[in-house]
Amino acid sequence: MRREWRLPPRSLFGAWWALGTAMFWVIIAALVTLTVDTRDAIIGMVLAVVVYGAVNYV
Question: Which of 1, 40, 51, 52 allows an S-S link to 36, with CB 3.0 to 4.6 Å?
Answer without folding.
Answer: 40
